[in-house]
Amino acid sequence: MSTATRALGTLTFRPLDPLRDAELLHGWVTHPKAAFWMMQDADVQDVRRAYAEIEADEHQHALLGLHDGEPAFLLERYDPAHRELVGLYEPRPGDVGMHFLVAPAETPVHGFTRAVITAVMRHLFEDPATARVVVEPDVRNAAVHALNTVVGFVPEREIPKPEKTALLSFCTREQFEKAVAA
C-alpha cells in the first residue's frame, strides 16, 4: 500500500476485492460522469465479473484508492504488451498501462482529481521497473487529456480501438517529476 499526503487529505491504495467492492464500483462506473468508462449499462454482477477477471489476470490488477480512509477512486494497472494495446504500438521494457476513475462527488473539491492522478502516477513510479506510463483515453475526453498534460503525459497519436478512437500518450518518470515540480 502506498500513501500520498496532500493538502486535500491522505490518499492511499488497497487491493480491490471484486466481491466486497462490486456494489460500490457499480455506482461509480454507471454514473453519467463515467461515460468514458463504457460500463453505463452494467449491473452489479457485470462489475463483479469484470473485476474478478482483472484479479485473475497476471497482466493487470485493480486498486481501490482511499481518501482519508474512504473509497474515492479506482486505479487499473496493466501490461500494455499483453492487454489493451497489443498490436497498436511497440511496447518498451518498463511500460505500464493505466486507467483511473474518480468517484462521483456530491460536492466536488477543487484540485481533488489532480491530486488523485498525481498520487496514481507516484504509486506507479514507486516500482523501479516502471520507466513509462502509457494511457489510451477516448479522444473526446478533453478533461482527462488536460489532467494527463498536468502530470507530464505527451500525446503521440490517435489509435483505433474496437470500442473507441484513443489518444495514445506517454509519460516517463522524468517527464512526471518535471511536471509536478513546476
Structure description:
With 182 residues, this protein is of the alpha+beta class. 31% of the residues lie in helices and 31% in strands. It contains five helices and eight strands. It has an eight-stranded mixed beta sheet, with helices on both faces. The longest helix has 14 residues.
List keywords for this structure.
alpha+beta, eight-stranded mixed β-sheet, single chain, 8 strands
In short:
This protein has 182 residues and is an alpha+beta fold.
Largest beta sheet: what is the strand line-up?
Answer: 1-2-3-4-5-6-8-7
The poorly predicted ranges are none
Name the average pLDDT: 93
Distance between the termini: 27 Å
Q: What's the quaternary structure here? A: single chain
H/E element sequence: EEHHEEEHEHEEH
List the helices and strands and how they pair.
Elements: E1 3-6, E2 9-15, H1 18-29, H2 44-56, E3 60-67, E4 70-78, E5 95-102, H3 112-125, E6 132-135, H4 142-150, E7 154-161, E8 164-172, H5 173-181
Helix pairs in contact: 1-2
